[in-house]
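Sample pair:
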Amino acid sequence: MDMSMMSAAELASELGARVRRERLRQDLTQQTLAERSGVSRLTVTRMEADGSAKLTNFLSVLIALRRVEDLEGLLRPPAAETIDQFIGGAQPTRQRGRR
């Protein structure tokens, strides 16, 4: 599935569906997942239904599902494109973005 062409709402819905599949794969009820993650069952229900959840709740659910390692590559710095970047591990020096 090409996620690059999805809207934010579609991405959230897809992530919710993936949480549901993983919960079922681990043979957990929504209530059990809610208890393990420290969120309400209603939060888990909404997350699975349409992906609506606060980021902290989503992360708590991933931790409870033991899938937090899936975030490892998220927003990782891009690979070096020049030899200078490779040698020096050049990091951007900007402190603020442009307007």
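The first helix runs from residue 8 to 25.
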